[in-house]
Amino acid sequence: MITEEQLDQYRLNGTAIRVRRDEHESNDVAGIIVAWDDTHVMVRKRNRRIVKLNRAYRYEPADGGEASN
């Protein structure tokens, strides 16, 4: 699960992230982190819609940098 520190760093830096929900790339969600709680993360997609995702998914920078579970 992604840590509070990683989430805060991504949010403060405005880092574009990719959320890998399963092995199919078509199911990935891209956007920026706007909020979170103990079990969920709110991500603003490029079309400005907000999605609520489980923190257990894999979050990584959209540029293909360091991954985190």
Characterization of the model:
The structure is a single chain. The chain has one helix and five strands. With 69 residues, it is mainly beta. A five-stranded antiparallel sheet has the order 4-3-2-1-5. A hairpin with a 3-residue loop joins strand 2 (29-36) and strand 3 (40-45). The termini are close together. The relative contact order is 0.28. The mean pLDDT is 93.
Key attributes of the depicted protein:
69 residues, mainly beta, 5-stranded antiparallel sheet, 5 strands, 39% strand
Topology of helices and strands:
Blueprint: H1 4-13, E1 17-20, E2 29-36, E3 40-45, E4 50-54, E5 58-61
Low-confidence stretches: none
Question: With helices defined by DSSP (H or I, 4 residues minimum), what is the helix count?
Answer: 1
SSE-based structural type: mainly beta
Please give the largest β-sheet: 5 strands, antiparallel
Helix content percent band: 10-25%
Strand content: 35-45%
Could you give the count of β-strands?
5
What string, H for helix and E for strand, traces the elements in order?
A: HEEEEE
Our Rg estimate from Cα atoms comes to 11 Å
Task: Give the neighbour order of strands across the main sheet.
Answer: 4-3-2-1-5
